[in-house]
Amino acid sequence: MNSRILSSCLCVLITALGLTPDLYAQSRDKTVLVHYMPWYASKTASGYWGWHWTMNHFNPDTVKSNGQREVASHDYPLIDLYDSNDPDALECHVLLMKFAGIDGVIIDWYGIEKFRDYAEIHRNSEHLVKHLNKAGLQFAVCYEDQTIKHMIEEKALPKQRDVAHGQMVLKWLAENWFDDDAYVKIDGRPILLVFGPQYFTKDQWVQLLSGLQHRPLLYALPHLSKEMGLDGAFGWPPVTGGHEITPMVWRQYLTSLYARESVISVAFPAFRDIYKQAQLHDSYGSIDARNGQTFAETFALAQKSNSQIIQIATWNDYGEGTVIEPTKASGYRYLEHVQRNAKSQLPYGPKDLRLPVTLYQLKKRYARDPNRMKQLQMATDLLFAGKCTEAQAAMEAASKGG
Question: Which domains does the chain have, with CATH numbers?
Answer without folding.
Answer: 26-346 (3.20.20.80)
